[in-house]
């Protein structure tokens, strides 16, 4: 149901409001206000202020002193697939390494699935994510790996989000195993053309065993010239050229960043907003702790990135192989426990950081004019997300101004 444009809703009696507007109240970048209220008109925030001065509204939700945050922005997810790889996970927990080789298993299952089966799976995961507070989600293709299959995945993804990413260069499919150059040609030509009506972003898995820096550069450059924004999977399984390539091509985000050299961190720290033109040139480092968790890999050193001034985002990487979780609260807890982030840094990275990684200024932040995407916690403070891991603390979700009900 879409909200009546003239309808207003007051979220009242908020004990702790995380706005992500730096300089507001306490909490540095979290911009925390106490005893606040938020007025929503249509799908946008119209007013934020002290609860005592709250204006009248058509409807009112009293959150009774709970914490309220911007909805989570999950900037990295692979939701269009069929089947699962639970047996592969069990083998890993018994000592097998993760190599990405299982991607082809999911490609076969995805190609064999009907549109309705794929759509139902995306709907299930999308619902699961929303229930856990995710109000913006990026969805990649990458388990089709042919012209028609990649277009089909993106068409289905587009039914759920505007943040769609063409990942035809996930791996080289089996039928092109002996001629990777031909596959890159296909991705850069007919596959890209078929993807364009449905995609906002282009992505490549730049890693030994997937695509090298030359192939990745060729694909990203042609995608960029066709009007797509650029993001990259890099430095997941080992050190490599991906992070620096991402900076070179002006990617909005480089994701995984598990194995980083000093030069990688320096390159990321050199990206920033160009204040003369106002252009956003920051390359965000998007960390995916669910992948390290599910592949038993070392976690990236997020502390080093933050101390160097790099913008960090957190995302789920939800996919059936390396990270089958849709839970941003779980990723926040992992980032705090395993990657050296403070609870405040992790909450910022999962909301405002994700928005930066998608170059959006209307989500991940609570200010007049932003989308009314709000999460109410069953807790008095954002600290509880990491402090109470595994507990379903998301009590209410407002998405585009509309309360989400199961
Ligand atoms: O981001 N690294 C490449 N792609 C996915 C994993 C895909 C899979 O194993 O199915 C990732 O981890
Ligand atoms: Fe991924």
What does it look like?
This protein is of the alpha/beta class and 406 residues long. The chain folds into 2 domains: 8-71 and 365-404, Urease, subunit C, domain 1 (Roll), CATH 2.30.40; 72-358, TIM Barrel, CATH 3.20.20. Helices cover 33% and strands 22% of the residues. The protein has helices at residues 86-93, 103-112, 115-131, 147-158, 180-195, 213-225, 242-249, 262-269, 289-295, 302-307, 328-339, 343-357, 384-387; strands spanning 8-18, 32-41, 44-50, 59-62, 67-70, 72-74, 134-137, 139-140, 164-169, 201-206, 229-234, 253-256, 273-274, 279-280, 284-287, 312-314, 374-377, 394-399, 402-403. Strands 1, 2, 3, 4, 5, 17, 18 and 19 form an 8-stranded mixed β-sheet that branches. A 7-stranded parallel β-sheet has the order 8-9-10-11-12-15-16. Helix 3 packs across helix 4. The protein is globular and about 70 Å long. The protein binds N-(iminomethyl)-L-glutamic acid (NIG) and fe (iii) ion. N-(iminomethyl)-L-glutamic acid is lined by residues 100, 102-103, 106, 205, 233, 236, 291, 317, 319-322. The site of N-(iminomethyl)-L-glutamic acid has 13 residues, from helix 2. Its EC number is 3.5.2.7. One of its GO terms (molecular function) is zinc ion binding. N-formimidoyl-L-glutamate binds at residues 143, 319, 321. Keywords: Cytoplasm, Histidine metabolism, Hydrolase, Iron, Metal-binding, Zinc. Belongs to the metallo-dependent hydrolases superfamily. HutI family.
Sequence-ordered SSE layout with sheet pairings:
Blueprint: E1 8-18, E2 32-41, E3 44-50, E4 59-62, E5 67-70, E6 72-74, H1 86-93, H2 103-112, H3 115-131, E7 134-137, E8 139-140, H4 147-158, E9 164-169, H5 180-195, E10 201-206, H6 213-225, E11 229-234, H7 242-249, E12 253-256, H8 262-269, E13 273-274, E14 279-280, E15 284-287, H9 289-295, H10 302-307, E16 312-314, H11 328-339, H12 343-357, E17 374-377, H13 384-387, E18 394-399, E19 402-403
Parallel strand pairs: 1-4, 1-5, 6-7, 8-9, 9-10, 10-11, 11-12, 12-15, 15-16
Antiparallel strand pairs: 1-2, 2-3, 5-17, 13-14, 17-18, 18-19
This protein binds N-(iminomethyl)-L-glutamic acid and fe (iii) ion.
The site of N-(iminomethyl)-L-glutamic acid (NIG) has 13 residues, from helix 2.
């Amino acid at each position: 149901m879409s909200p009546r444009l003239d309808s207003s809703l007051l979220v009242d009696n908020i004990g702790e409001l995380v706005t992500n507007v730096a300089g507001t109240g306490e909490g540095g970048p979290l911009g925390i206000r106490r005893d606040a209220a938020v007025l929503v008109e249509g799908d946008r925030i119209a007013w934020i202020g002290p609860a005592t001065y709250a204006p009248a509204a058509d409807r009112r939700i009293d959150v009774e002193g709970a914490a309220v945050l911007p909805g989570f922005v999950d900037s990295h997810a692979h939701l269009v697939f069929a089947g699962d790889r639970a047996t592969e996970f069990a083998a890993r927990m018994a000592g097998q390494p993760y190599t990405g080789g299982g991607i082809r298993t999911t490609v076969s299952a995805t190609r064999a699935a009907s549109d309705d089966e794929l759509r139902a799976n995306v709907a299930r995961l999308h619902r699961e994510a929303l229930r856990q507070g995710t109000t913006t989600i990026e969805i990649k293709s990458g388990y089709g790996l042919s012209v028609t299959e990649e277009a089909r995945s993106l068409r289905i993804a587009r039914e759920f989000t505007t943040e769609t990413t063409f990942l035809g260069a996930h791996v080289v499919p089996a039928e092109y195993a002996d001629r990777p150059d031909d596959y890159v040609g296909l991705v850069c030509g007919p596959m890209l053309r078929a993807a364009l009506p449905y995609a906002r972003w282009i992505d490549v898995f730049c890693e030994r065993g997937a695509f090298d820096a030359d192939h990745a550069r060729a694909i990203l450059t042609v995608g960029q010239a066709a009007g797509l924004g650029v993001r990259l999977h890099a430095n997941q399984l080992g050190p490599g050229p991906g992070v620096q390539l991402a900076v070179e091509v002006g990617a909005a985000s480089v994701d995984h960043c598990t194995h980083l050299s000093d030069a990688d961190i320096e390159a990321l720290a050199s990206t920033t907003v160009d204040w003369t033109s106002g252009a956003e040139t920051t390359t965000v480092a998007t960390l995916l702790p669910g992948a390290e968790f599910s592949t038993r890999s070392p976690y990236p050193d997020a502390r080093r990135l933050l101390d160097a001034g790099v913008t960090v985002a957190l995302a789920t990487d939800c996919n059936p192989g390396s990270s089958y979780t849709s839970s941003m609260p779980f990723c926040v807890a992992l980032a705090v426990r395993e990657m050296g982030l403070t609870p405040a840094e992790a909450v910022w990275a999962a909301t405002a950081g994700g928005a930066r990684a998608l170059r959006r200024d209307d989500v991940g932040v609570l200010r007049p004019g932003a989308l009314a995407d709000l999460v109410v916690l069953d807790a008095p403070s954002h600290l509880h997300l990491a402090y109470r891991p595994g507990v379903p603390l998301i009590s209410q979700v407002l998405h585009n101004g509309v309360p989400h009900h199961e």
